[in-house]
Amino acid sequence: MHSYKVVKKTSSQACFLLIGFQIFPNLEDLYLESKDASALLRSLCPQDFYDKLKVLNLFCFHDAHATFPIDLLPRFPKMENLIVGCSDFKELLPSRLDGVEKHAIVLSSIRHLELDSLPCLEHLWKSNSQLDQALQTLGTLVVQNCRSLIYLAPSRASFQNLTNLDVRNCKGLVKLVTSTTAKSLAQLTIMSIKDCGMVTEIVANEGDGIKDEIVFSKLEILELHRLPSLTSFCSEKHSFDFPSLVEVTVRQCPGMKFFSNGALSTPKLRSVNLTKVEKKNLNTTIQQLSTQTKAQIAESSSS
Question: What residues does the Disease resistance protein At4g27190-like leucine-rich repeats domain cover (predicted)?
Fold first, then answer.
């Protein structure tokens, strides 16, 4: 065999880690707990020691002052998947970060970020001009069971290559993204927001009074499930263009009265599934657009 994959490792001794990498030089997937990470940070090893590692799992950092081991990441320059779970971090990336550029380079290689069962997590990172651009290559973002999460990302965060956004059971989340961040989601194909009891809108108002056109160029599927506080996708008068959207599902969102206040375009919309929603008020635009789509199909069929 030319490659090996380790799903879980229980020893907390640095020597075990070093020997393990010598035995399995093509190791691609590593599971670390708090003591393991500390041991690895103290170890001395060649710069290219972990060059083949693609998946890093960080779990069980249970401490009142637990901090995400950001200094560990530069050891894995080829890492593409970062999975963090069952820990007490308050933030993923610290506000005061030494060597921001070095860490930003490592973060820029991450394609898949999954955060699960982080009850103390309040934000991924606070507003920082360099870190706001650090996850530009991220393709998949999964956030679930993070009950203290206040907002998904700072107002100027950009996710230009994000294709899949999945947020579930984040009870403290009020608004998902700002209009600035929304404008960066040109590659997003699936957005799924479920079981977030405090969410009032998906695209939040930044309070600058500017009404922009926001284009979700590749979004095909939009799922909004069990969001009892949701009143709209966006309450501001931004215009929204969904040129690729084919399916919208809104389930158990009893407070949702309309989709958006601005102009709305969904030329390819095929399916609108609504349950426990004021259908007559869910932006009659949605229903009108469905009618328009049928008319367009009929017209193209007859021509």
Answer: 45-155, 156-257
